[in-house]
TrEMBL record:
Record's keyword annotation contains Metal-binding: yes
Protein name, as recorded: Protein Churchill
A GO molecular-function descriptor: zinc ion binding
Keyword Zinc: yes
This protein's UniProt keywords: Activator, Developmental protein, Metal-binding, Transcription, Transcription regulation, Zinc
InterPro entries associated with the record: Churchill_sf, Transcrpt_activator_Churchill
């Protein structure tokens, strides 16, 4: 992975967890060939590990195939919530949790 290709290493992305694609605003250009072009997604693998879905792939320079970053996305169901995480030098770090119930108990206001 190459910190010279990105503006900010592991930027904080809040709840934005990407299962595919690239955060191009953080790509400043390839440290190897010097070009700023699209980023390829390669070596994509998805599988279940211990009840958790894990998707991994590499971000590569379109021109010279230099490895910019490795991307990891996870999805799991814990209790009554869908849990998402993302960790990538280019795309950043993020976590999200969404209730599987029609009304999220965390969002309900007390009646008294």
């Amino acid at each position: 992975m190459c910190g010279g290709c990105v503006g900010t290493e592991y930027p904080e992305r809040g709840t934005t967890c990407l299962e595919g694609g690239s955060f191009l605003l953080n790509f400043v250009g390839c440290a190897q060939c010097g070009r700023r072009d699209f980023v390829l997604v390669a070596n994509r693998a998805a599988g279940l590990h211990g009840g958790e879905e894990i998707v991994t792939y590499d971000h590569l320079c379109k021109n010279c195939h230099h490895l910019i970053a490795r991307h990891e996305y996870t999805f799991s169901v814990v209790d009554d919530y869908q849990e998402y995480t993302m960790l990538c030098l280019l795309c950043g770090r993020a976590e999200d949790s969404i209730s599987i119930l029609p009304d999220d108990p965390r969002q309900m206001t007390p009646l008294f």
